[in-house]
Amino acid sequence: MTTITKHVVALFLCLIVSNISAQETEKENKKDTIINTNELIKKKQIDELIAQKAKVEIQERNYLKADIKQINKQLEEGKITASEAEQLKKEAAKKRAANIEDKKSIIDKKIALYKRTPMAYQTSLPNEEGGRLIRIGGADEKTSDDFFYIGQQKYDKPQIIDKRTTSNLYYTLGFNNAIGDGQSLGDSPYSLGGSGFSELGYSWKTRLFKNTNFWRLNYGVSLQWNKLDFKNDNQYLVNTNSNIVLQNFNGDLKKAKFRTTNLVLPMHIEFGPSRKIVKGSNFKYSMRNKFKIGLGGYAGLNIGARQKLKYKENGSLVKEKQNGGFEMTPFVYGLSGYVGIGNVSLYAKYDLNPLFKDQAFEQNNISLGIRFDLD
Fold first, then answer.
1. DSSP secondary structure, 65-108, as one string
2. Which of 29, 97, 110, 279 could disulfide-link 160, Cβ–Cβ 3.0 to 4.6 Å?
């Protein structure tokens, strides 16, 4: 395990150094992405308004035809005279012409307002009552801290309320593998490119000290999915007298994948700067675009294991799912950590428990990916 520990420590150090050196570049890239996407949405909105402008004249002309038809009906029924009918038609034409001019002017003002609006991903125009919008991320400090926002624009404002404990969903995905003591990734029988992992969880974050937000405890519950793909296309896992080994498939094996599912309770000590926002007697700590590091681990239960095989038999393609019987370690636990800026982090985890129990050669799962905190 000494070799593995050295690898894990080296991995964390590499993540921290690379993240610090790329911090400014990531900020600029994120800003450029928001600006570029915002401009695309604005162009689409303006194109839609221009199309509406073209429809205004057609719509009002149709209304005028309906007005004239109604006037002629009144004339035929003897309710008005010919001179009165002529006067009503002139008034109707004048009203519809004014409507065309006013509606086009309103649309032109909307176009100008869209061009001036700095909000990212805004999909509707603000009005006196507060327009509805859909936002992903935020362009500045004038919006709420929510990563996703759907609702009235007037409520999309920073909430100056001190909450010592906050909560959010998070999602992680990346590369996965399994190695034994003294083994490197190059020695592993599992493919690095085809193997992957994902994690979906709900976490709580509590400020540890009353007057500073630098130290925080991040804890929660999550589901982990670890997938292993084999380097040798013709090999798969076999239980031989409770010994899990890779064997050559007796036939034309097209694909073999192995996946485990764990239910775990992660916990991390998170630290990093934040900005204190004060408004009157209220205050809050904002971590928007702030650097953070989280170090800790997880513990839980293995709740499933499945191997998928795809092979040809008698000229037909067969898909087989094998559930259970893989001698999985029932209790899982390990080390994990992340470094990032704002809602996006580099994430790594390493299982301290062996993948399969009571084996002559123990293997431990290791993963590296990206974590998204969906505040």
1. HHHHHHHHHHHHTTSS-HHHHHHHHHHHHHHHHHHHHHHHHHHH
2. 279
The rounded distance, in Å, linking the Cα atoms of 211 and 115 is: 42
Tens digits of residue pLDDT in 296-354:
999 999 999 999 999 998 888 999 999 988 889 999 999 999 999 999 999 999 999 99
- 3-class DSSP state of 160: coil
Question: Would you call 14 helix, strand, or coil by DSSP?
Answer: helix
Neighbours of 64 (CB within 10 A): 18
The whole-model pTM stands at 0.59
The pair of structure tokens assigned to 297 is 């681990």
d(CA 336, CA 170): 15
Name the pairing type of β-strands 212-230 and 252-271. Answer: antiparallel
* Six token digits for residue 291: 């650097």
Q: What is the DSSP letter of 375?
A: -
